[in-house]
Amino acid sequence: MRHPILATLCAAGVFGLSACDKTIDKDAVDREFTGVNAIDGTGLNDVMLKAADPSEAVTYFQRADGIDPGRIDLMRGLAASLVRAKRNQEASIAWAKVVDHADSTNDDRVALADALIRNNDWERAEQTLNSIPPTHESYKRYRLEAMIADANQNWDKADSFYETAVGLTTKPASVLNNWGYSKLSRGDYSGAEKLFYETLRHDPAMFTAKNNLVLARGAQGNYTLPVLQMTQVERAELLHTMGLSAVKRGDVRIGKGLLEDAIETHPQHFDAAATALAALEPTVTN
């Protein structure tokens, strides 16, 4: 994706990257760059946020913010790009600067809470969400509220927030999967199973939900694979998960058989299943 973007910019003479002209000096580049942002930076910003490589987007917004400091759209772009690049600590700092800006919004505070959770700073994330008026209702806010309630083991509140979040989006697969995993971690295996099926109804290709569904069924002693759309590799991996679930429940012989099926099903060498099976051999023999 990055090459067509750069080619377009070079052809238009908009952005003096070194890839376009090795001889152009830095001051000229900066003047061109400032001109672009002064006239119409929004379109290019959107391209960098959505289509560019995350690291390239970070570099772009760092430089843009340095040339034209204090522009909240560039500050947001940098913070969002740092999240995309998984530079979570820097992203938290960047979103905090956005929130401190005079033109910041409640959506910016939600974005800061998200960055803080990604950086495993749950306490500050909760404080940030608590600072947002309850009248500000959004899918992202309630998804984060649910995650924090989960972390606090406040299950009733978590369920309420998850349900609200699901109702605020047309693409609920991700939050349904999180909700199902929450139920799984609490030991509500049948409730988790229902939520994973619902997840896959919205996104049949989500392998994480398939694997979680197998975990929920295995925890209930149900060692048959559900009827799902899956590749041969996925089937082998799900059999592996099911086998480990059986062993965890003490059904070692069943687990051994499932691991053997996983190895046989996989089109290539399945090292993880083979290692698990080898570890079980002495146990089963004895």
Structure characterization notes:
α2 packs across α3, α5 packs antiparallel against α6 and α14 packs antiparallel against α15. Among the domains are: 109 residues, Alpha Horseshoe (Serine Threonine Protein Phosphatase 5, Tetratricopeptide repeat), CATH 1.25.40; 57 residues. With 286 residues, the chain is an all-alpha fold. It is built from 15 helices and no strands. The radius of gyration is 24 Å and the shape is elongated. The N and C termini lie far apart (57 Å). 74% of the residues lie in helices and 0% in strands.
> Which fold name fills CATH's third level, the topology of the domain at 1-109?
Serine Threonine Protein Phosphatase 5, Tetratricopeptide repeat
- Per the principal axes of the C-alpha atoms, what is the gross shape? elongated
Number of helices: 15
Low-confidence stretches: 1-24, 28-32, 35-40
Mean pLDDT: 87
CATH class of the domain at 1-109: Mainly Alpha
| Radius of gyration over C-alpha positions, nearest whole angstrom | 24 Å
Structural class: mainly alpha
At CATH level 2, the architecture of the domain at 1-109 is: Alpha Horseshoe
Strand elements, count: 0
- Succession of helices and strands: HHHHHHHHHHHHHHH
Provide the helix percentage: over 70%
* Strand coverage percent: under 5%
Q: Tell me which oligomeric state these chains represent.
A: single chain
Question: Which short descriptors sum up this protein?
Answer:
286 residues, mainly alpha, Serine Threonine Protein Phosphatase 5, Tetratricopeptide repeat, 15 helices, 0% strand, elongated
